[in-house]
Amino acid sequence: MGERQCVSCGKYVEEHLTDCPFCREPLPEIPHLRATLQREGGPLIRRGLLWMLLAAVLYYFAAGYSPLDFPLPFARVLTDYLLPLLFLGGLGQATYGFYHSIMQ
Ligand SMILES: [Zn+2]
């Protein structure tokens, strides 16, 4: 069982109490865990969208859609498997972050 400090008298009281046993002042409610879980969804969504953007930009250049000419050819496995996998991984992470933020 944890303790917290009374905002009126400054003495330490048990965490589950709603009124201070020393000065009888009401104690403010403890913030719930929900607020921290909602904040965790945002970085997941942003990180997932960043992976998707990185995959799209790399695919644009590696697949030959760019007017620029690169001196070295890209491996075909990059455009066929790795960049779509990176894109889908980012999509999954953004979806998980969105699900995480709306379910709490
Ligand atoms: Zn008190």
Which value, in Å, is the CA radius of gyration?
26 Å
What ligand species are in this complex?
Answer: zinc ion
N-C termini distance: 25 Å
Biggest sheet descriptor:
2 strands, antiparallel
Number of helices: 2
Strand content: 5-15%
Helical percentage: 40-55%
Structural shape: rod-shaped
If you average the pLDDT, what whole number results?
A: 88
Strand order of the largest sheet: 1-2
Poorly predicted tracts of residues: none
Would you kindly provide a written description of the structure presented here, covering whatever features stand out?
This protein is mainly α. The chain folds into 2 domains: 1-30, no CATH class; 32-102. The chain contains 2 helices and 2 strands; from the N terminus they run ββαα. The protein has a two-stranded antiparallel sheet. Helix 1 (34-62) packs antiparallel against helix 2. The longest helix is centred in the middle third of the chain and has 29 residues, at 34-62. It is rod-shaped. The mean pLDDT is 88. It binds zinc ion. Residues 6, 8-9, 11, 20, 22-23, 25 line the site of zinc ion.
